[in-house]
Specification:
The protein is α/β, with parallel strands linked by helices and 683 residues long. The longest helix has 27 residues, at 225-251. The structure holds alpha-D-galactopyranose and zinc ion.
């Protein structure tokens, strides 16, 4: 990885309103189509275009030939029409000549097969030829367009992802390990290599963990979790190295324009927390499966907002109507696009962009939803909805820009715990990290709490409640910082399989939950994993919840039982515990089993209630709320009705509805239409 000065936190492009538009690839169509496009953009309130994402082969048809004629035309046209451009460096899909001339650029997959030219996102991140040619292109683009009046932001590459297992990566991995571990003794110690006679005596003996080496069945089945974890970290850094190299190239010519790359939310292969310091601002592509509850995209928004310490992010892509890559690609129903867009803004999006502005004519995305379809019409349902939203965002102006979420609840999200949990042999392959995290996030959000989804290194001093679901690895001084939350009266909630291992996935040589045992006031000696259909009752006050998947057997060491198991040989032993900690009434809560949704809701609401964090609309199940505080102090309160019927709510404070202009007194009834939205400025 190259040395790189991290960007300033949350340095966003400066705009007068929420940038609105999306991916635009006019190089794929005849020239005269651009006239229609721009007329339609104006009609739809589109002011921002992401251009050049996949145009490497157009801009550089041969190694020594650059041709920017087409891109010049696109940027000049955008500027002439008063639009701004998010300019991509075009390095996510290499041109055929490059792969032919430098075959090392093609990736080697997990099965050890060297790929040939095809598709996109297809470059080996360690390839010297790729690094040289991608940075050369980025530099040329920066040299040419740094001072272009249309330039608003840089968009490096596109959706970095995947991994490579080639010989160049193997060498680079060995170098990365030397830097991380220093000596072979340290490496052997970290990876527990005495197990199965793996003690390494030379760095060159180390192989990337693939199906040819440590793995069987696939990427989740490894003989050595420590090796696989390090490869994930290495790949994260290798891809990040591609990003920072391009950013450095841009900075040679353009010291100021903010730089980003479009991330993918809760995307397992890349630890975005390692990337965050290098982005000037975060941006991401939101394509939730249509059957996902609204808290799934909400969690991803909050995770992305957490990358830059709570600064707003850009919604870089969403489809206006349908995706194309799934087996079945349903339409967004009337009103769903608007609701999803306001949800993004409610969670911190300061830009709203689509993939794509016009449908491509051929290849695998020709049926992907677009603002403008193949016929170029302005009277389709989708175009009409997009245009209405454009007008609405135009009226909104600048008020949401730079606004922050004043959350007092934090949820710790840790990619390394995700990896460690899901590559673990035992206790259960049925426990999936995002599902458990989502269960606790959803309970807090549906209770009306704003939640910051933060890395384990985040400053926790401003939170009353910290949720740590399935936080398998506890690293550094985290246990001390969690204790500090409870010492000043806060509540920390942890679940089963939290605090089991250190950063190398080595079990703590102590009672479970390792360094969190004092805060939780418990000890766990045994755990019973069961198939999905084995559930048992857990009584929580008036409620009988169901528990499943894993039953940790808890002994109280200072904590009290909040709920006990109802069946099996551990019937009557604690399933949920609470431990008073510190002089100011702080508490450590431990949930030793996978409770069903009512069970998680009950526990999380009790924790939130201790700190008066259950929101005023918590009983309106379909209504999501979120708060943002604008730089001028204005408090924006979003109400989003995810239900298909209208809902009346009595407003909790005097406010003005930004979208209708109506004034409301405390207690006035506000009717939210099906899929309706209100943005209140609290008075
Ligand atoms: C991703 C990519 C786009 C496009 C869309 C389709 O987000 O970045 O280029 O392929 O998916 O949904
Ligand atoms: Zn490689």
């Amino acid at each position: 990885m190259t040395e790189h000065e991290p960007g300033n936190d949350g340095r966003l492009p400066c705009t007068a309103k929420v940038p609105y538009g999306g991916d635009y690839n006019p190089e794929q169509w005849p020239r005269d189509v651009q006239d229609d496009d721009h007329r339609l953009f104006t009609q739809a309130g589109v002011d921002t275009l992401t251009v050049g994402v996949f145009s490497w082969s157009v801009m550089q048809p041969a190694e020594d030939v650059y041709d920017f004629t087409v891109l010049d035309g696109i940027l000049d046209r955008a500027a002439a029409e008063g639009r701004q451009v998010c300019l991509a460096t075009a390095t996510a899909a290499v041109p055929p000549w490059l792969a032919k001339k430098y075959p090392e650029v093609n990736r080697t997959d997990f099965e050890g097969r060297r790929h040939r030219y095809g598709q996109r996102h297809n470059f080996c991140p360690s390839s010297h030829a790729y690094r040289r040619l991608s940075t050369a292109l980025a530099a040329r683009l920066a040299e040419r367009y740094a001072h272009h009046p249309a330039l608003l932001a840089w968009h490096i590459n596109n959706e970095y992802g995947g991994s490579c297992y080639c010989n160049v990566c193997t060498q680079a991995f060995r170098g990365w390990l030397r830097e991380r571990h220093g000596t072979l003794d340290a490496l052997n110690d970290a990876w527990c290599t005495t197990f199965w006679s793996h003690r390494f005596t030379d760095w060159d003996e180390v192989e990337p963990p693939s199906v040819l080496t440590e793995h069987w069945r696939g990427p989740d089945h490894t003989a050595f979790q420590g090796i696989t974890l390090d490869y994930q970290r290495f790949m994260t850094d290798a891809l990040l190295g591609c990003f920072t190299a391009e950013k450095d190239a841009i900075r040679l010519y353009d010291p100021d324009t903010p730089v980003t790359t479009n991330l993918m939310g809760a995307y397992r292969p890349i630890d975005y927390h390692r990337w965050a310091p290098h982005l000037d601002f975060a941006s991401w592509d939101n394509y939730p499966p249509l059957d996902a509850p609204p808290t799934r995209p909400a969690l991803a928004h909050d995770l992305m907002r957490g990358l830059k310490d709570g600064a707003p992010f850009w919604l870089m892509e969403q489809t206006p109507s349908t995706t194309a890559c799934r087996d079945v690609n349903p339409l967004r129903r009337p009103g769903e696009l608007r609701l999803a867009t306001w949800q993004a803004i409610a969670h911190g999006a300061d830009a709203v962009l689509y993939f794509q502005m016009r449908a491509s004519r051929g290849a695998c995305e020709k049926y992907h939803g677009a603002v403008i379809g193949h016929a170029g019409r302005d009277d389709t349902r989708v175009f009409t909805e997009v245009a209405h939203l454009g007008a609405e965002l135009g009226r909104l102006g600048a008020i949401t820009l730079g606004a922050r979420t004043p959350a007092r609840t934090a949820l710790l999200f840790d990619w390394e715990s995700w990896w460690a949990l899901e590559i673990s042999d035992g206790p259960s392959r049925l426990i999936r990290y995002p599902d458990v995290v989502h269960a606790y996030y959803r309970a807090a959000r549906e209770a009306g709490a704003d939640v910051d989804v933060v890395p384990v290194t985040a400053d926790l001093t401003s939170y009353d409640v910290v949720l740590a679901p399935v936080l398998h690895l506890v690293k550094g001084d985290l246990a001390t910082r969690l204790e500090a939350v409870a010492r000043r009266g806060g509540t920390v909630l942890a679940t089963f399989l939290t605090a089991r291992c250190d950063q190398h996935d080595r079990a703590f040589l102590a009672d479970v939950p390792g360094p969190l045992a004092p805060l939780m006031g418990i000890r766990v000696d045994e755990w019973d994993a069961r198939p999905k259909d084995v559930v048992q009752p857990v009584r929580l006050g008036e409620l009988t919840a169901q528990a499943g998947l894993l039953f940790e057997i808890v002994r109280l060491r200072g904590a009290e039982a909040v709920a006990v198991y109802g069946a099996d040989f551990y019937a009557g032993t604690p399933a949920v515990t609470r431990n008073r900690f510190g002089p100011d009434g702080g508490e450590g809560w431990y949930v030793a089993t996978a409770l069903d949704r009512p069970g998680v809701d009950h526990v999380v609401r009790r924790v939130l209630a201790r700190h008066a964090l259950v929101g005023p609309y918590a009983d309106h199940r379909a209504v999501e709320t979120a708060t943002r505080v604008a730089p001028d102090g204005a408090c924006l309160f979003f109400l989003l009705n995810h239900g298909s019927t209208s809902t009346d709510v009595a407003v909790h404070a005097a406010a003005r509805d930004l979208l209708t202009g109506k004034r409301l007194d405390q207690g006035d009834v506000l009717t939210l239409d099906p899929l309706g939205v209100a943005v209140l400025v609290l008075q």
